[in-house]
Amino acid sequence: MTGPATTGPGRRLLALLLLHSALTQVVTFVLRPTSAYRALELDVPTAWLGALTASFAVVPLVLAVPSGQATDRFGERRVMLVGAVLLALSGVVFASGRGGAAGLVLGSVVLGTGHLLSVVGQQAAVANTAGPGRFDTAFGYYTFAASLGQALGPALITLVGGEGALPDTTPIFWTATGLGAALLVCTAFLRFPGRGSERTAAETGGMSTLLRLPGLLRALLVSCVVLAAVDITLVYLPALGADRGLAAGFVGLLLTLRAVASMASRLFLGRLVARVGRRRLMIGSVALAAVSMAVVAAPLPPVALAAVVVLLGLGLGVGQPLTMSWLAEVAPAGLRGRAMSLRLTGNRLGQVLIPSTVGLVAAGVGAAGVLWATAAALAAVGVAARRLAVDGGPTT
After folding, report:
1. Which band of pLDDT confidence, cut at 50, 70 and 90, is reported for residue 361?
2. Is the pLDDT reported for residue 198 higher than 90?
């Protein structure tokens, strides 16, 4: 199938992949906070709450690269099927209520594994089916769909569980299980073109081939710092608002504006790349994020703060899909699953190490200091991105 992203069957396949991405994130972003609510219902000790959070995050660090190898060897659909089964199963584990705190941790491990397999399979599938010249558009749409799912998940908690301080968790768990079953059906309808030569490449190539790619470490660094910056805004914008006496509702509006702006930049990513080029867009977006992050930390009137947060969202929304499209272009076709899993590993390390490091460095100057330190980290990777050859080929 030539140029699948531009043909009728290719559009249907991409639409299914986008639906798969949105459903995966909805299930995940329903189950993770709801499991925390269930833990509060059970009066779980603080140490177990930490284990509940870590059990989801630690799985990608351990299994990311093997999952990429499995994707390259056995195909995206098989890996995504296993991921969908595990996502649905995690809902069952949570809903059963068995095992107390240990049962919640087990459910979180199953959820994290299912999420990992689904995401690695999705990203490899987008890379292998988009076709040359369509990587930026395809990954822009893909990350937009993922962001949409992440926004819809928490809203579903209120819709199903009510608006109380502690929602009714059991119907939420079963609703997520039903969505997991829908994800499994969606996966069953996915049909990817045969790529026998790419399977051969997967068997003969390896991680060493990827690690020798020029600019790989720079691209992974940009990806993990940008993602860590997003996580930092989720924690430290509320902290900044508390320091400055801003209403919680206004801070929530700021977080929503940032998310919507990031979604908008991803939706139009293909057009932006076509207009300015991938390299300029990557450098410009990281620079915009760095400057906006620094300005957000300065004392501003509410309207100006909201405007700067929109600019921050636009800058932060571009880094992830651009590094995905760059990896899809430079990685050998039979090693794209491993390439995407390597990026995920770097992202998870960044999510663990960067916020804690920035917090330690800026501990004496409060939330504003953390945001300034994050802006400095973004500026540093922006400089690194200047030496990253991300333009080239038909994608520019």
Report:
1. low
2. no
* Cα–Cα distance measured from residue 211 to residue 127, given in angstroms and rounded to the nearest whole number: 18
The pTM (predicted TM-score) of the whole model is 0.83
Give the SS3 label for residue 215. Answer: coil
Q: Model confidence over 232-279: pLDDT tens digits?
A: 887 788 888 888 888 877 888 888 888 899 999 999 998 998 898 888
Selection from 262, 257, 102, 126 nearest residue 190 by Cα: 126
Predicted local distance difference test score (pLDDT) of residue 5: 44
